[in-house]
Amino acid sequence: MTSDTNEKINAQVIAVFPDKVKIVVEDLEHFKVAEESLKVGSYLKIADNENAVLIAVIENFQISVGEGVQNYIIEAFPLGVLRNGKFERGGDSLAIPPKEVVPATIEDIKKIYEDTVNPVESFTFSHLASNKEVAVPINGNKFFNKHIAIVGSTGSGKSHTLAKIIQKATSEKHEDFHLNNSHVIVFDIHSEYKTAFPNANYIDISNLILPYWMLNSEELEEFFLDTEANDHNQRNIFKESIIFDRKQKFTGDEDDKQKIHLDSPILFDINEVLNFSKFKNTEQIDTGEVYASGDKKGQPKLNQGSLYGKLTNFINRLENKINDKRLDFFLGEKSKNITFEETLQNLLGFTPKKESNITIIDLSGVPFEVLSITVSLISRLIFEYGYIYKKLRCIENPEEKINNDAPILLVYEEAHKYVPNSDLSKYRSSKLSIERIAKEGRKYGVTLLLASQRPSEISETIFAQCNNFIAMRLTNPVDQAYVRKLLPDSLGSLIDKMTSFKQGEALLVGESIILPSIVQIEPCSIAPSSNDIPYWELWKNKWKDIDISKIKTEWHK
Question: Whole domain around residue 260: which residue ranges?
Answer without folding.
Answer: 217-321
